[in-house]
Amino acid sequence: MNEDTDIAIVGIGCIFPGAENLDEFWKVLVNGEDHVQDIPPERFNVQAFYDPDPDHPYKTYVRKAGLIQKYDEWDNRFFGISDKEAELVDPQQHFILESVHMALEDAGIPKEAIAGSNTGVYIGAMNHDWDCVLRSARHKATNTTVTGTDSSILSARVAYFYNLLGPAITINTACSSAMVAFHTASQALRTGEISMAIAGGVSFILDPNVFINLSSARMASPTGKCHTFSKDADGYARGEGCGIVLMKRLADAVRDDNKIWGTLFTGLNQDGHMSSPITSPSGDQQEKLLHTVFEKCWIPPHHVQYIEAHGTGTSVGDFTEVSALGKFFSKHALHDIPIGSVKSNIGHLESGAGAAALIKVLLMMKNQKMVPSIHAKPLNHRIPFNELKLYVCQKQSSWFPNDNNRRIASINCFGFGGTNTHAIVTDYQKTKIPPTHSCLQTCLNLKKYIILSAEDLIALNNSARNLLKYLKNGISLIDLSSTTVHTRSHYRFRKVFVVDEIQDLALQIEQFIGEKSQVKPVGKEKPKLVFVYCGVGTTWQKMCKNLIQHDEIFKRCIKDIDYHLSFYANISVEAIFENEDVSDSLKNHLAIFACQIGLTEMWRHLGVSPDSIVGQSVGEVAAAYASNILSLEDAVKVIYFRSLNLSQESSGKMIIQVP
């Protein structure tokens, strides 16, 4: 593992069939659910276009797909889009915006923290159903029609809303689009072009023409199921949705103490003219890609414990892919490797397929479980699974780490135009556990603050209802407080619950919802805050003792100060606070400085930052540190030698010359 070149996944957001969020998607996977359904009339009149005869012109033999419920309901004003403009916005845009919002919340990164940064946006997309429907309806064009339908806006809309200054790129390589987006983002991170990436894929179903074309090509499943790896494989079932991940260099993610889902290494190649026609997959090129990726990432192939296949459920595609996988891994595998495909649960998301596959693997790693790949029975007898040292994962099982205490998986993703991608995913184990905020709140004699906020009252009440449901899962009140205070954007309408226990919180939320309390929006102007760092005359014996005993943040600051101080003298600020006399000028000044630094970091940890900073006398050094003028190391050096020189002066006076 190389922190300088490895790419970390630090946040996930998704909307898939049967799942409006990450938790619901895990339930779909672990329960082996199938969310392919009959296409409802509000999408299009299926009966008018249906005919079981695949040779019937302008007809489709498909009546099912994996669909998002209430696809046309979203909070457009939250994303700065007027009601009038929203009428013409491709649903793929709001799938992406909502998924990005969820990914940022999952990562604990507020909107304000990335505004103006060189974060890049990379979105895989290939469908134009919305534009086709508007054209067929002869909808009168307006000044927002082009921004509502153009595919470049799918990525640009994210950059615009969050004020991101890195590249915003929409990528189309058909069904490998999302994985190509991850690869492109990874390369930009490695070269230093961007500091963070928002990457993923999206798809949306509204127009019958794609079904008609797929039926003519015999690529779609007449049964509306992805019978991946099965003798019954008869084509793929279409699906829609969006998956987004946040990506950073691993070193940066570790530095920023981000939650790390896992690390990602990707590779690409093309079939060229190695197979014919252009839509026919090349097993040789797929196998060659595996050799290339594993040679570059320095991960031994026999360490791979699971393979998420492209697995669309076409008889030719499944046979070609599994054969290529088996030819490569059977040379290295110490035991049979399980394979699966998320398409059997939610359909083939086409340009979003790679995102669904990656998120599935990351969820399995987090929950340490392998989930079933459904609709595989009876297995395709043409595929010699035993010889290839592969088997279809058809039941839930525990996922244990390998001998190196790691979980490693491979992901295949192919485009029907020949763009092949492969990814290697590894889990990540943090070596240290960050301190909680419990001591911080205790030492300041604070209760737990739970903050909910939204752009309007309806959304605020909905957030309260969602939180009430979430409380039933048995969560830590301390962690919940920390999350809502520190890692969420705070919008105009806010409600703060001040509580001691989860039961108190549940009761207050129920009262808030039941009473329909009026919440007034906060003012547009943020109050100005000044930090003042005073001089001498503010010490007392055993000062800050309780802070050191009960506050992890304060204690950590004092230990850092003592570490830097140890290079100059055998003095410990912690010992001074514990029981020493602070009347000595050297110790007095060091104590004031250390107290001010510790309090500064405590307030920062609470999310309180000053607009202005003023320092006087001894306080000037701490003020310089708080202003980022001095590092802690330099500030300790300055305060020590300043205080030492003053302590060695026996007497002095201030003289003012009077004319």
From TrEMBL:
The keyword Transmembrane helix does not apply. Gene3D superfamilies: 3.30.70.3290, 3.40.47.10, Malonyl-Coenzyme A Acyl Carrier Protein, domain 2 (3.40.366.10). It comes from the Eukaryota. Keywords: Phosphopantetheine, Phosphoprotein, Transferase. Residues 4-427 form the Ketosynthase family 3 (KS3) domain. One of its GO terms (molecular function) is fatty acid synthase activity. Pfam families: Acyl_transf_1, KAsynt_C_assoc, ketoacyl-synt, Ketoacyl-synt_C. PROSITE patterns: KS3_1 (PS00606), KS3_2 (PS52004). The keyword Phosphoprotein applies. PANTHER family: FATTY ACID SYNTHASE (PTHR43775), SI:DKEY-61P9.11 (PTHR43775:SF37). This is Fatty acid synthase-like. The lineage of its organism: Eukaryota, Metazoa, Spiralia, Lophotrochozoa, Mollusca. The gene is LOC111129548.
